[in-house]
Amino acid sequence: MDVFMALGDPVRRSLLDRLARGPQRVVDLAADHAISRPAISRHLKVLGEAGLVSADERGRERHYRLERSGLAPVSEWLAGLAPSPLISESALDGLDLEVRRTVRERSTAEIAQPTTTEETA
Protein backbone atom coordinates (compact mmCIF):
# COMPACT_ATOMS: atom_id res chain seq x y z
CA MET A 1 0.00 0.00 0.00
CA ASP A 2 1.25 3.43 -0.92
CA VAL A 3 1.83 5.78 2.05
CA PHE A 4 -0.07 8.60 0.38
CA MET A 5 -3.06 6.37 -0.32
CA ALA A 6 -3.04 5.20 3.29
CA LEU A 7 -3.00 8.80 4.50
CA GLY A 8 -5.87 9.73 2.21
CA ASP A 9 -8.49 8.55 4.68
CA PRO A 10 -9.38 10.84 7.63
CA VAL A 11 -9.96 7.90 9.98
CA ARG A 12 -6.49 6.55 9.27
CA ARG A 13 -4.94 9.99 9.81
CA SER A 14 -6.82 10.23 13.09
CA LEU A 15 -5.49 6.82 14.13
CA LEU A 16 -1.95 7.98 13.37
CA ASP A 17 -2.52 11.12 15.46
CA ARG A 18 -3.52 8.97 18.38
CA LEU A 19 -0.65 6.53 17.90
CA ALA A 20 1.82 9.41 17.81
CA ARG A 21 1.15 9.79 21.55
CA GLY A 22 2.06 6.16 22.24
CA PRO A 23 1.08 2.54 21.62
CA GLN A 24 -2.63 1.77 21.81
CA ARG A 25 -4.92 -1.25 21.75
CA VAL A 26 -7.59 -1.56 19.08
CA VAL A 27 -10.31 -1.18 21.69
CA ASP A 28 -8.79 2.12 22.85
CA LEU A 29 -8.48 3.38 19.28
CA ALA A 30 -12.08 2.38 18.50
CA ALA A 31 -13.38 4.34 21.49
CA ASP A 32 -12.64 7.62 19.67
CA HIS A 33 -14.55 6.70 16.52
CA ALA A 34 -18.16 5.95 15.64
CA ILE A 35 -17.17 2.86 13.69
CA SER A 36 -16.79 -0.75 14.77
CA ARG A 37 -13.62 -2.38 16.07
CA PRO A 38 -13.39 -4.61 12.98
CA ALA A 39 -13.48 -1.45 10.84
CA ILE A 40 -10.70 0.06 12.95
CA SER A 41 -8.75 -3.17 12.53
CA ARG A 42 -9.13 -2.94 8.73
CA HIS A 43 -7.82 0.64 8.81
CA LEU A 44 -4.89 -0.49 10.96
CA LYS A 45 -4.20 -3.29 8.48
CA VAL A 46 -3.96 -0.72 5.66
CA LEU A 47 -1.67 1.45 7.77
CA GLY A 48 0.45 -1.61 8.54
CA GLU A 49 0.74 -2.51 4.84
CA ALA A 50 1.95 1.05 4.19
CA GLY A 51 4.62 0.67 6.89
CA LEU A 52 3.06 3.33 9.09
CA VAL A 53 2.12 1.15 12.09
CA SER A 54 3.24 -2.11 13.61
CA ALA A 55 1.70 -4.33 16.24
CA ASP A 56 3.07 -6.12 19.26
CA GLU A 57 1.30 -9.18 20.60
CA ARG A 58 0.81 -8.99 24.37
CA GLY A 59 -1.18 -11.99 25.46
CA ARG A 60 -4.49 -11.83 23.67
CA GLU A 61 -4.14 -8.13 22.80
CA ARG A 62 -2.39 -6.36 19.98
CA HIS A 63 -0.77 -3.02 20.79
CA TYR A 64 -0.27 -0.81 17.75
CA ARG A 65 2.42 1.79 17.50
CA LEU A 66 3.38 4.43 14.96
CA GLU A 67 6.34 3.65 12.72
CA ARG A 68 7.78 7.13 12.14
CA SER A 69 10.21 5.82 9.54
CA GLY A 70 7.20 5.02 7.36
CA LEU A 71 6.54 8.74 7.03
CA ALA A 72 9.89 9.33 5.29
CA PRO A 73 8.38 9.44 1.77
CA VAL A 74 5.98 12.15 2.94
CA SER A 75 8.77 14.17 4.56
CA GLU A 76 10.92 13.87 1.44
CA TRP A 77 8.05 14.96 -0.79
CA LEU A 78 7.32 17.98 1.42
CA ALA A 79 11.01 18.92 1.52
CA GLY A 80 11.02 18.91 -2.28
CA LEU A 81 8.25 21.50 -2.27
CA ALA A 82 10.24 23.96 -0.15
CA PRO A 83 11.73 26.81 -2.17
CA SER A 84 15.46 26.66 -2.77
CA PRO A 85 17.55 29.54 -1.41
CA LEU A 86 18.15 32.43 -3.82
CA ILE A 87 21.84 32.51 -2.95
CA SER A 88 23.82 29.33 -2.49
CA GLU A 89 25.68 28.69 0.76
CA SER A 90 29.01 28.52 -1.09
CA ALA A 91 28.48 32.06 -2.39
CA LEU A 92 27.77 33.25 1.16
CA ASP A 93 30.92 31.50 2.41
CA GLY A 94 32.96 33.38 -0.20
CA LEU A 95 31.36 36.69 0.82
CA ASP A 96 32.10 35.96 4.48
CA LEU A 97 35.76 35.26 3.66
CA GLU A 98 36.05 38.51 1.67
CA VAL A 99 34.48 40.58 4.49
CA ARG A 100 36.85 39.08 7.08
CA ARG A 101 39.88 39.75 4.87
CA THR A 102 38.82 43.37 4.26
CA VAL A 103 38.24 44.01 7.98
CA ARG A 104 41.66 42.52 8.80
CA GLU A 105 43.44 44.62 6.13
CA ARG A 106 41.75 47.84 7.31
CA SER A 107 42.60 47.23 10.96
CA THR A 108 46.23 46.52 9.99
CA ALA A 109 46.33 49.72 7.89
CA GLU A 110 44.90 51.83 10.77
CA ILE A 111 47.59 50.57 13.14
CA ALA A 112 50.34 51.31 10.63
CA GLN A 113 49.20 54.89 9.91
CA PRO A 114 48.68 57.27 12.87
CA THR A 115 45.56 59.42 12.82
CA THR A 116 45.75 63.17 12.12
CA THR A 117 44.99 64.07 15.77
CA GLU A 118 48.01 62.10 16.94
CA GLU A 119 50.27 63.93 14.45
CA THR A 120 49.30 67.41 15.71
CA ALA A 121 49.69 66.59 19.39
From TrEMBL:
One GO MF term: DNA-binding transcription factor activity
Question: Transcription regulation: is it a keyword of this entry?
Answer: yes
SUPFAM superfamilies associated with the record: Winged helix' DNA-binding domain
Q: Where is the HTH arsR-type domain?
A: 1-86
Q: What Pfam families does the database record attribute to this sequence?
A: HTH_5
Q: Which UniProt keywords apply?
A: DNA-binding, Transcription, Transcription regulation
Q: Does the keyword Transmembrane helix apply?
A: no
PANTHER family per the record? Answer: TRANSCRIPTIONAL REGULATOR, ARSR FAMILY, TRANSCRIPTIONAL REPRESSOR SDPR
Q: What is this protein called?
A: DNA-binding transcriptional ArsR family regulator
- Organism of origin is Nocardioides thalensis
